[in-house]
Amino acid sequence: MHSLPILDDLPAGFFVEESPKGILALHVDVARAMHEAGLGPEHDGPMELSDLAGRRPLMQLEVAGERYVVRRFRRGGLFRWLMPEVFRSAERPFRELMLSDALARCGIPTPQVVGARALVRPGGWSLEVISRRVDGAIDLGLVMAKMGKGEIAPAARARIFHSVGGLVRRLHAVGFLHSDLTPRNILIRREAMTSAVPEPWVLDLDGSVFAENMTVNERRRNLRRLYRWASRRSPAQGIKLSLADQAHFMRGYDPEGNHWRDDWRAINRRHQMGKSVHMLGWFMESLLGSGPEKRDGSTPGGLPA
Predict the structure, then answer these.
(1) What pLDDT does residue 74 have?
(2) Distance separating alpha carbons of residues 266 and 294, to the nearest angstrom
(3) Residue 245 has pLDDT above 50, yes or no
(4) What residues does 137 pair with on adjacent strands?
(5) Model confidence band, residue 84 (pLDDT cutoffs 50, 70, 90)
């Protein structure tokens, strides 16, 4: 029996080490090498800043000739300014580890989470997950920016959107609702931007769930989040989602053509309603003398990244 109940539910093949200052779970395949390199419940070992681009700085470990990505959890909302990396519960990285294992068992490509760590901090916990690095891949958001610059041929562009639609279809088929389904959390191998068949990966599973009985509205909300990201960033980052792109995605998502029309109408209707609500908010802010804040990834008067 571990001090944290969720640790008793970890998948087979994970070792747990606990100390007064932290908890570390590592897969048997990497545990010995990680420990010999100096990683522990309270020791970082050879951890260093990663060269990968992301919404926030990523760390990395290079152990026994293999590279691993370390993602530290950060708060959103108001608490991102007060205690950005401190959480009251230690469960989240271990829960993401379990989601990663379950998704891989469903045959869906996702970087293997080989470790999870919770470190004691004043007022709570600092949390991390450790994943195998997918070399030679970039996120779909960066791929779409290259599309906006004309750097990807139309045929490759069509294949990529079709494959991403297929990935989301497979996620929904097993009842998986990604909590942050955006192009930033979908990886595409670089060779897919030329002639290779795309095999997209989904990552950053924190907060996601397996819905026992996924409803149509849940599925459409998930799709709308993906569409909303692209529509927000079109002017700011040179990303333009064409009707052809949308069609290729929907053919991948609904190859039988059973419901894509109804899905698209519902998504577009909700999207337009959402835009109206945000525009009203900006108008009220302007009346109060406080216009919308310009943030990274947004344009003046645009939605925040």
Answers:
(1) 86
(2) 30
(3) yes
(4) 189
(5) low
Count CB atoms within 10 A of the CB of residue 61.
25
Buried b (16+ CB within 10 A) or exposed e, 188-197: bbeebbeeee
- In 3D space, the residue among 93, 83, 157 whose CA is nearest the CA of residue 121 turns out to be 83
Superfamily (CATH) of domain 137-283: Transferase(Phosphotransferase) domain 1 (1.10.510.10)
125 within 8 A of 90, measured Cβ to Cβ? yes
User: Model pTM?
Assistant: 0.85
Is 99:171 a contact under the CB 8 Å cutoff? no
**Residues 177, 209: contact at Cβ < 8 Å?**
yes
In this model, does residue 295 exceed pLDDT 90?
no
Integer CA distances (angstroms), 282 to 225, 278, 287, 295, 299, in order: 21, 6, 9, 14, 13
Residue 83 is predicted with a pLDDT of: 55
CB 248 within 8 A of CB 162: yes
What's residue 298's pLDDT? 29
Half-sphere exposure of 230 (CA within 13 A, CB side): 26
Structure tokens of 169? 């279809």
Tokens of 213: 């009985």
| Beta-bridge partners for 67 | 62
What's the CA gap between 204 and 227, in Å, rounded?
Answer: 18
pLDDT in tens, 102-153: 999 999 999 999 999 999 999 899 999 999 999 999 999 999 999 988 999 9
Q: Among all chains, which residue has been given the structure tokens 């068992």?
A: 105
CA distances (Å), origin 17, targets 9, 30, 96, 132, 164:
15, 14, 18, 20, 38
Unique residue bearing structure tokens 């700011």 = 236
Tokens of 51: 């060269």
Measured CA to CA in angstroms, residue 288 lies from 146, 292, 295, 303 at distances of 39, 11, 20, 19
Give Dmax over CA atoms of the chain in angstroms. 61
- Bigger pLDDT: 246 vs 272: 246
Tokens of 200: 């997209």
